[in-house]
Each structure stands twice: as C-alpha cells, then as structure tokens.
C-alpha cells in the first residue's frame, strides 16, 4: 500500500484485521480518523498508523 493512498472501509477492515461493522462503529463514535469524499468514507494510511500508535479507543 502506498503511504498517501486512500483506503476504503473494506481495505481498512482488512488492514486492521477487524470486521467492517467495527469500522462503522468507530466512525459512528468518531474514534477513527477519516474523511468523507462524495458521500464515501476514506482513510489515509499514515493517519491510521499514527492513530494506532496513540492507542485505539
């Protein structure tokens, strides 16, 4: 994966080894760094990696 590439919900779930449902819950609670582009959620890998280093949750 390229560092600045935007991931979809499916790609993020696979990257984090969680279910898509978990990603949707994190989005609903504002826990995961995300951007919405034309009504679809996208995730920057570098932001996700920084979020993981801070400790999820």
Any overview of this molecule?
With about 55 residues, this protein is α+β, with helices and mostly antiparallel strands. It has one domain (about 5-55). The protein is about 45% helix and about 20% strand. Strands 1-3-2 form a three-stranded antiparallel β-sheet. A hairpin with a 2-residue loop joins strand 2 (about 35) and strand 3 (about 40-45). The longest helix has 10 residues, at about 45-55. The chain is globular.
Quick overview:
With 57 residues, the protein is an alpha+beta fold.
SSE blueprint and pairings:
Blueprint: E1 6-7, H1 9-16, H2 20-28, E2 35-37, E3 40-44, H3 45-54
Antiparallel strand pairs: 1-3, 2-3
Helix pairs in contact: 1-2
Overall morphology: globular
In which range does the helix fraction lie? 40-55%
Strand-and-helix sequence, N→C?
EHHEEH
The total of beta strands comes to 3
Q: Spans of 5+ residues with little confidence (pLDDT < 50)?
A: none
Major beta sheet, strand line-up: 1-3-2
Strand content: 15-25%
Number of discrete helical segments: 3
First-last Cα distance: 24 Å
What's the alpha carbon Rg, rounded to whole Å? Answer: 10 Å
Mean pLDDT over the full residue set: 91
> How many structural domains?
1
Helix/strand-derived category reads alpha+beta
Major sheet, described briefly? 3 strands, antiparallel
């Amino acid at each position: 994966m390229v560092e600045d590439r935007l991931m979809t919900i499916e790609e993020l779930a696979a990257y984090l080894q969680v279910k898509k449902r978990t990603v949707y819950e994190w989005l609903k609670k504002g826990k995961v760094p995300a951007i919405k582009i034309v009504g679809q959620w996208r995730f920057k890998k570098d932001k996700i990696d920084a979020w993981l280093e801070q400790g999820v949750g």
